[in-house]
């Protein structure tokens, strides 16, 4: 065993035998294991970097991007680049239920089309947690790199969102009915990406000094401004959930909250001094509130969402087992177009009872991690991201989109990595060693 230092400058003891040694090669051959995982680690850091702009890329002539992600998951599985997690059975069983849902619900429409959607989601759910856990355990820097890649690319997208509010077009992307898309492809997606970025900023801020802190303050201002510019109420609610989790897990006192508020106010002040119009920035939110409450005409008002809920629930009550089919052609509700903006109802409506059980099981597992973090006072950024995604999913069209699932799975897997004062959580089955992976930057 040897003593090393983490990103916070604190000492920790690195275990002699790492999990990835047993996975990638002979025990004790850590250099070969690290080299074997280096290329895959780099690839997944790149994937984390494109998550904020995933939809923009896919809609810009790269429609095969989802298939590329599937290949990047299957290849490590074939060569043994996987590592079990606690509650592995839940993810595997959920993947099996999703496949079952695709086959059964497809009988209502098109079995082949329904299964195609089911297979893509089942691979993501059934393989990604274990492939990503391998790379987390293969390198302590993996968590820092994926967080940095995500934050940098997302901040570029957020800057584009601010430009769109000012009436500019960025790479052909413009504001959507006054709401900023950034480079995310949709205001709601941009909003969630901003929330995740803000959580990462808070986590990194605690372990950085000097010029890096100044850069993080800039990133926080850009992403907060972009979040407001999206007018996404679902994202604002998810930000509130993330903030509550951060405050509880970090055991933040009045002083910390005041300092954070003052820092945020100073950042906003700098943007105002630079000439940003707060009225233009808040206009999307004000308009969105009017739309949702029915004060003005628009898509996805509260009344329209309620109609989708009633339509989906009526169908579920009449046939709780089968579902209408998992493929996109069956996602419409009362008007054949508008989807259910609630991930639980959406899953049950399209995939039937098997899909509901799969999504409910994963949700319980994720929420358990959030509760555990709040009780233990550890894993603040991971828990905050998990809470943010779940709250967002409750009011959005969250379904099989890789852009939503990847941040959720990354945060979930990161929540099992070792903290500064202890080893990682292990599966209940006997294991050969301990992990050398690191938590997300700034985690407690």
Automatic annotation (TrEMBL):
A GO MF label: ligase activity
Segments traversing the membrane: 39-57, 63-82, 89-106, 118-136, 148-169, 189-207, 214-230, 236-252, 257-276, 348-371, 383-399
UniProt cross-references to InterPro entries, sorted A to Z: O-antigen_ligase-rel_domated, WaaL-like
Subcellular location: Membrane
Coiled coil segments of this chain: none
Keywords: Ligase, Membrane, Transmembrane, Transmembrane helix
Keyword NAD found: no
Protein's UniProt name: O-antigen ligase
């Amino acid at each position: 065993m040897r003593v090393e230092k983490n990103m916070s400058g604190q000492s920790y003891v690195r275990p002699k035998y790492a999990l990835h040694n047993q996975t990638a090669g002979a025990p004790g051959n850590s250099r070969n294991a690290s080299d074997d995982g280096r290329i895959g680690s780099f690839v997944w850091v790149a994937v984390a970097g494109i998550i904020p702009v995933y939809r923009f890329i896919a809609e810009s002539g790269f429609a095969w991007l989802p298939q590329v992600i599937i290949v990047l998951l299957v290849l490590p599985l074939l060569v043994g680049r996987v590592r079990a997690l606690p509650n592995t059975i839940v993810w595997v069983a959920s993947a099996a239920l999703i496949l079952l849902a695709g086959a059964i619900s497809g009988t209502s429409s098109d079995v082949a089309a329904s299964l195609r959607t089911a297979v893509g989601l089942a691979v993501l759910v059934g393989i990604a947690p274990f492939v990503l856990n391998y790379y987390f355990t293969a390198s302590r820097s993996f968590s820092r790199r994926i967080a940095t890649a995500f934050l940098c690319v997302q901040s570029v997208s957020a800057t584009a969102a601010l430009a769109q509010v000012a009436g500019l077009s960025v790479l052909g992307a413009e504001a959507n009915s006054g709401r900023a898309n950034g480079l995310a492809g949709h205001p709601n997606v941009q909003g969630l990406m901003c929330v995740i970025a803000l959580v990462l900023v808070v986590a990194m801020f605690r372990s950085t000094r000097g010029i890096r802190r100044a850069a993080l303050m800039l990133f926080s201002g850009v992403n907060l401004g972009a979040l407001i510019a999206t007018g996404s109420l679902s994202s604002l609610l998810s930000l509130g959930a993330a903030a509550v989790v951060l405050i509880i897990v970090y055991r933040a006192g009045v002083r910390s909250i005041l300092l954070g508020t003052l820092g945020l106010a100073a950042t906003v002040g700098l943007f105002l001094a630079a000439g940003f119009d707060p009225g233009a920035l808040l206009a999307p939110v004000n308009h969105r509130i009017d739309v949702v409450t029915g004060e003005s005409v628009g898509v996805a008002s509260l009344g329209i969402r309620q109609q989708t809920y009633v339509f989906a629930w009526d169908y579920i009550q009449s046939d709780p087992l089968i579902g209408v089919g998992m493929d996109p052609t069956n996602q419409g509700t009362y008007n054949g177009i508008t989807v259910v903006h609630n991930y639980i109802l959406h899953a049950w409506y399209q995939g039937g009872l098997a899909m509901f059980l799969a999504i409910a099981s994963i949700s319980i597992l994720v929420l358990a991690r959030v509760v555990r973090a709040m009780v233990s006072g550890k894993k603040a950024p991971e828990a905050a991201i998990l809470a943010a995604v779940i709250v967002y999913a409750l009011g959005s069209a969250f379904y099989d989109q890789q852009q939503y699932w990847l941040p959720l799975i990354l945060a979930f897997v990161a929540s099992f990595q070792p903290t500064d004062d202890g080893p990682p959580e292990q599966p209940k089955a006997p294991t050969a060693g301990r992990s050398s992976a690191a938590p997300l930057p700034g985690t407690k």
